[in-house]
Amino acid sequence: MASKDVYLVLGGDVFAGRHVVEQLNARGDTVFVFDSTQRHNDVECVAGDICAPDQISNAIQKTGATCIIHTISPLSIGNHDNLSVFHRVNVEGTRNVIEAAKAAGVQKLVYHGSSDESLPYPKKPMGQYAASRALAEQLIIAANGVNGLKTACIRPTGIFGPGDQGTIDGAYKSWKRGTVHVQLGNSKNLCDKTYVGNVAHAILLASDKLSDPAAVDQVAGQIFFITNNDPRPFWDFMRSLWAGFDAIFPDRATKKRSPVVIPRSLALVLAYPLTPYTVTFATATMYFSSAKAARVLGYAPQVSVDEDIERTMTWVKAEIDTGNFK
Hints:
- Belongs to the 3-beta-HSD family.
- By secondary structure, the chain is α/β, with parallel strands linked by helices.
- The protein has one domain: 3-Layer(aba) Sandwich (Rossmann fold).
- 44% of the residues lie in helices and 15% in strands.
- The protein has helices at 15-26, 53-63, 83-104, 128-142, 167-177, 196-209, 216-219, 234-248, 264-269, 276-283, 291-297, 305-321, and strands spanning 6-10, 30-35, 45-47, 67-70, 108-112, 150-156, 159-160, 182-184, 190-191, 194-195, 222-226, 232-233, 260-262.
- A seven-stranded parallel β-sheet has the order 3-2-1-4-5-6-11, sandwiched between helices. It has a two-stranded parallel ribbon with strand order 7-10.
- Helix 1 (15-26) packs across helix 6 (196-209), helix 3 packs parallel to helix 4 (128-142) and helix 5 packs across helix 8 (234-248).
- The longest helix is centred in the N-terminal third of the chain and has 22 residues, at 83-104.
- The protein is globular and about 60 Å long.
C-alpha cells in the first residue's frame, strides 16, 4: 500500500490555506504550515518568507513534505497595482517554491491560482495582480514532470467565506459607510462566487489524483476552474451579504433606499477613489465552467452559496465580538 503524503501548506494560517489545513486534519493527514504568521496551534507552523529560498528549503527538509500546497498571494483588492509586491511574491516566490521542491525531490505541488485569467491567457491582463498570477501559474505548469515533480493548478472564481480578508471586508466597510444603495453598472453581469471550503476540497482532490495511477496523466500539468456552479448578478450577491449584516446587527441595519445606478462607462471615468480594476470587477461577467474538474477530479460543490453566506455571517459576528474584525 502506498505511503500517505506529508503535506506542507504554504499560507496555511489564513483563508484558503487554513481551510485546506482543517480538511487535512479532519481526514487524519500529516500536515505542516509554512507562513509568516501563526494564529492557530492545531498543527506545527514553520515561520518563513516565500521570498527567501533557503527558508522554503529548510521547511521542506524539516517537515519531510512529499506534497506542497501553495496558497500564498498578496491581496488583490485595495492593492491592485502594486507590481513590485505581486511580482516578488507571486512570480519570484513561486519560482523559489518550485526550485526548492525539485531539489528536495518533492513529488507533488498543487497551486491555488486566480480566475482573473482566462485560457488561453489574455494578451492584456485585468491588472498587475492577474498578470503576476498568470506568470506564476505558467511556472507551475512548466515544472510538471521535472525531477519527478507532478503539478496542477486550481482556479477558483470569486472565492469567499470565513476568514475572507477581501470580498467580505469590502462588503462590510461599504455597509458601515451606508453606501449599499450605490450600484456600478446595470447588474446584469453574472458572477459565480465560490465557497472557500469548496476550493480547499478541490485542492485536495487534485492532490489525491496526482497519486492515482489511473488519473495522474489527466491531472498532472493541468488547470481546473472551480466554481459553485451558481452564477448570480453581482449586485444581487452583494445585497445578500448586506442583508446578512443587517440580520446579525439589526440595531445598525441600513435604511432601504432605491439603488443609485452609475453606468459602467461613467464609473470607469470617475474611478477614484475606486480603481478601474475595482469597477471592472464589479461590472464584468465572471463565471466559468467547472465541468473539467467534475469530470477529471470528481469535484462537486459541497456547500451552497446561501449556506456559505450564513457561515460567513456567523464568522463575522464572532470576529467583531472579539475585536478581530473592524
